Amino acid sequence: MASGGLAVRIETKPPAITLSDFYSVKKRSTVRKIQKPYEEISAAAKAKGITVVKEMQDRGYKDFDDFHKKCGQFPMTCWVTEFAELGSGYVLYFHFLTFVGLLLLVLFLLQLPVMKTYGDYNWLHGWQWSSWEAGFQSKDSCECIGDNNGITGLPGVQAQSNYGKSCAAWDAPTSIDTCQEGQDCNMSRPGQWMCQKWCFAAPHCPARFHEENPSASNVHYKGLVKSYSFCHNEEDQAAAPQTCTGVTSENIAFAEPGIDLGMDTYTIGSHWLTPGNLGPDQATLAWIPTLYFVCVCLVCFMILVAYQRMVITDHKVDADNLLPNDFAILVRGFPKTATDERQIMQWFADNAIPGQRTEIVKVVIGWDVEEFRQHLKQLQKLSARLKKVEPDSDEAVEIKKMQQDIATVLHSVAPDKAARLQSSGVNVVVFRHHFDMKAVVRRWNSFSARWFYSDSNGICPGSTLPLFPQGGKNICKLKVQRAPNPGDINWEELAVPYGERMKMLMKTNFVMLLLIGATFIITYFMNILQKQTQETANHIHGEKRFGMQAVSFLPATVVALMNEILAMAARALGKKEFHDTKTTEEFSQAMKMSWGMILNTMGVILFQNAQPKEWYMRGGLVENLGPMLLMNSLGQTLMPMFEMNYWMSHFYRRKLTSEKIAQMNDTITSCVGKKDQESAKKLKQVKTQVQEWKTHFAPEVMDQPRRFAIALQICFCCIFFTPVMPWVPLVGVLGIVLQYWMDKYMLLRKYRRPEIPANANLVMFSLKFIKYFAPLGLTISAWLFLTPSYREKGLTMVFMQLSLAVAAAFSFAMPLRIWAKCLLGCCGEPVKTDDTDYYTAQYMWSKEMKYHKDQFIYKKLPDSVNPEYLKPEQSAAIRIDDVKATYGVAVTSEAEKAVQGRRRPHGRGGTGAGRQLLLGGQVIDVIAEPQGPESSPSAFTPAPATYGIPSLGAEPPKYGMPTPAASASSAGPSAHLVAGGVPSFGAPPAPPRCVGTSSAPPLFGIVPSGLSDVVPAAAQTVVWEFQVQGHWKTFADDCQSYIEKRYGEYNTGSGRYWIQVSTSGIKLSIDFKRMTQMKSDSRKVSNVRRRVS
Fold first, then answer.
1. How many CB atoms within 10 Å of residue 1038?
2. Comparing C-alpha atoms, which of 62, 39, 29 is closest to residue 975?
């Protein structure tokens, strides 16, 4: 028992590590409903003036691990908005899938009358003589060619040199009377065709049977076509029966020796319901091209509706949260010498908004760290290699040595680099007011600003925007955009020159094109093999025929495998590029995957079946496209179910034997409690081993770029091939529905919880992809696949031109938000309803969610130079000398993290350490990450929440005083450390730990868990207070008991979180969830608190 009645419990016997502890990582890393229960506990702890851990204990949780395990899972049937705590990106991803599914479903429903019409025709036979030129030429394909290829007449009939070169009754009998008597006729089956006018036409002239007048049917004869349709008119039709009588009176088609009836097995069946059923150059139905024009317009409209819905959903998801980028802009174009934060702040205060002085809170400079960036990439590659080998193998030892060598080089060159440290030219500027940030973005990111570097003056450019000074002259043009949130910025890559970025982008795209070309060739030869097999199968019967036809699925299988290879290559190539944010990196990966899979899926099959007759032949476009789209739409969506990456790690997991676990336990037992350096070094080695082993037991994270790419591939391929296969959107609908439920199941039951809440950018990028290419793709494909079937080619051309005008205007004329505002009458950009002060909002966010604590150099500055919480009366500008002095420490720290594999790689999956950012900017270590030799080697059990940051309305901290976390760590063991820093599974709970160091004091009387005085309940007094100009005042006595009563009802779940109160003649409302109040008359919002004394 400590002095003052404070009880401190320290375990001396470390719990042993077991294999089940490693396997528990997978289960404990999955998605659970954490945020809402934790916020309730946090709010209750804040109101009571106690720690979060104490409140958890009061509610029956042993520790945070126990709390995490008892948090329920999301039901599979829940609305996607319910797991908004994962970020709006996940919510909008499922909205995006819903949109794609509905788009394809509507497209399919519109095809029903088309399919009904196609089912009424069966003129596929004529496609075996069709050609590309004939399919798209405007002249009549059955017109006279003026040549007869040496044919001078029918056998037994007098030869004629001009036979068939022009319209005439070339087969009329020389002696009608004799022919009527059956003599000298020399015809196998004479009929009225002998008296019909005709001429020779090209082989691609449709030889369709004329049902009303069979004798006028075109017929293929000796490589040409006897074209009766071109020479046919009503007078001839009436005269033929009168001229041909007797044995020539029968109304039959020409059927003499030499005719070519084609192959019955050449084309597909009419049950495929394609425009091929109409036959080549036969269709006259104007309503079908009109329908596809309507489809293009409808696709554009549905994209607009989807965009607006996603914007509104994104707004609703984040409505209760103020994020750091609500106050910040990202500015490019600064000179390399612009390293004075004070000067930059002063310039923006004077020039950001015309006619007013704008309050600037902070400028965070993106420093140029080229040498560090290059070495860090090498360290990350080595860390990735290290994860794939056994931790104690010879190869692992060699990799660690290489890592240490690079880290040593970085440390040695750090002083020289610090002396010549320069700006990257990209800075983050933080404003005090949200409305100021919005005004600056509107001014500096307008059309006039982007194109003319001028203010907007209606539709015309106005005065020139201010120029930033360099060398005493105003010459630098700045580019402004809303800043990404901290955690999304790749600070090390901001300084990469544009030329180097483009060089790397071109290199990765070139490699991607080579891979696409390679897969194209492989798939092409698989298609050739399939065609040859199909041709052989056409002449074989029985079981052997069935077996050979089964080979037709080979190209579809190969395409699916090649798509997987392209997806992996796109991910690796995207990581090699330079991106300012992780979101743009994911978008680059998604685009490479999408284009790779789209070109691989539809490019090969279109290239190999370019001729219209190849579309409808056996083993052609239609017959191969069905299985291919089915396999890609359904097969790829099922891949996550197999958890391939996790099961591939089984090879490494099985190497963790009981002997190795026993060695780690022996090391811990022998070194625990010892203070010498050798023991600390051994404990650190065990910690590193455990962390490395844990990566092989952690579950996968949802691969968002891959899933977006699959959805885009299904969407675009199904839309493009709809005109030739009207039922194919239904295949896409089935694929999207399967992807929706498969991804929802995997996200809520199998995948690891994402460490960073996903934003809406990737969804918006994907929606823009559909905007640019879906309407144009449908327009081009409708013209491409319908024109060969139509007699009048101009009919499809007219509707193609109309559709092209609509698609081009929609895709390229204006951005989606302008179209949405013009056509839907609503603005595509959410607007905050209040103008919260940054100095107030900063208390909502944990340290990592502040720009000046996220940049790797700034966060190593001492709190005396770079405090976490900024004050309006104190300048936040940092001198460059302080930055230079910290550069070496920052570089060494980041290098050490990369060596240990603790630095989160690009993307949102992370390393499996378990650090998670919740909405609103709070951080929590669900599976804690070791923080040094004094911390846990294992850290299997989730750490207490890292919510040492007060939420909105918290009392500002007093700098220079210890934090609750600091007090806790100095007074007792953490949740994962007992008896000198050994691993513990199920260790006693610890107080909340703020990530990094902080200087905030205990809030509202909060003291570390386990060190607080025990206060009898009867001695406690509850006082409700509100904040006025940074000071707390007590509510009047006439409402104290009423507020406390209603708050108790809210805590038990029997009351609302929002109440109305009348006190001293003033009406106001109180929000227990946000701990704020608002006066009814002024609508002014201020903070409230519940103080226990």
1. 11
2. 62
φ, ψ of residue 1055 to 5 degrees: the values are: -130, 170
**Residue 887: what residue type?**
Y
pLDDT given for residue 715 in this prediction: 93
Quick one: which of 954, 957, 945 has its CA closest to 868? 957
Q: Is the Cα dihedral 250, 256, 262, 264 positive or negative?
A: positive
Question: Which residue has 């350096």 as its token pair?
Answer: 677
Kind and range of the H or E run holding 638: helix 636-638
| 1011 touches 1002 (CB < 8 A) | no
Residue 20: CB atoms within 10 Å: 9
Q: Can you point out the beta strands (E) in 574-651?
A: none
Instruction: Determine contact, residues 552/626, Cβ cutoff 8 Å.
Output: no
Name which of 233, 221, 230 is nearest 153 in CA terms: 221
Cα(282)–Cα(279) distance, integer angstroms: 6
Check: CB of residue 537 under 8 Å from CB of residue 530.
Answer: no
Structural tokens at position 571:
């991910």
Q: 1021: which 2 tokens?
A: 């007094």
- Are the CB atoms for 1085 and 1027 separated by under 8 Å? no
pLDDT tens digit string along 231-287? Answer: 876 566 655 666 676 667 788 888 888 888 777 667 888 889 999 888 888 888 899
* CA separation for the pair 376, 370 (Å, rounded): 10
Q: Is the pLDDT of residue 480 over 70?
A: yes
What is the C-alpha to C-alpha distance for residues 853 and 867, in angstroms, rounded to an integer? 9
CA dihedral 242, 243, 249, 254 (to 10 degrees): -130
Q: What is the pLDDT of residues 131-142, one digit of tens each?
A: 776 667 777 778
Question: How many whole angstroms separate alpha carbon 316 and alpha carbon 310?
Answer: 10
Q: State how beta strands 1022-1028 and 1085-1092 pair.
A: antiparallel
Residue with tokens 């929609």: 810
Long-range contacts, 493-501 (Cβ 8 Å, 24+): 493/373, 493/578, 493/579, 493/580, 494/366, 494/424, 494/426, 494/580, 495/366, 495/367, 495/368, 495/369, 495/370, 495/373, 495/423, 495/424, 495/425, 495/426, 496/373, 496/578, 500/578, 501/577, 501/578
Pick the closest to residue 438 from 820, 833, 88, 764 (CA basis): 833
Give the mean pLDDT of 769-798.
91
Cα atoms in the Cβ-side hemisphere of radius 13 Å centred on 953 = 22
Q: How many CB atoms lie within 10 A of CB 1025?
A: 15
Kindly tell me the sign of the dihedral angle through the C-alpha atoms of 842, 845, 851, 852: positive
Does 914 score more than 50 pLDDT?
A: no
Pairwise CA distance, residues 169 & 533, whole Å = 45
Average pLDDT over residues 424-430: 91
Integer Cα distance of 228 and 21 in angstroms: 85
Q: Residue 633 has what DSSP assignment? A: I
- Tell me, what DSSP letter sits at residue 988? P
Report the distance separating Cα 450 and Cα 631, nearest Å.
45
Mean pLDDT of 1001-1019: 31
Structure confidence by residue, pLDDT tens digits, 572-606: 888 888 888 888 888 888 888 888 888 888 887 88
* Burial classification of residue 297, based on how many CB atoms lie within 10 Å of its CB (0-12 exposed, 13-18 middle, 19 or more buried): middle
> Which among 743, 739, 742 has a CA at the least distance from the CA of 702?
743
> CA-to-CA distance for 351 and 466, rounded, in angstroms?
7
**Least confident stretch, 6-10, 27-31, 579-583, 1042-1046:** 6-10
Band of pLDDT at residue 52, cut at 50, 70 and 90: confident
- The answer to whether the beta carbons of residues 996 and 929 sit under 8 Å apart is no
Mean pLDDT of 362-377: 74
Which 8-state DSSP code applies to residue 1034? E
Local structure of residue 862 (DSSP, 8 states) = -
pLDDT score for 726: 94
> By the 8 A CB rule, do 721 and 629 touch?
yes
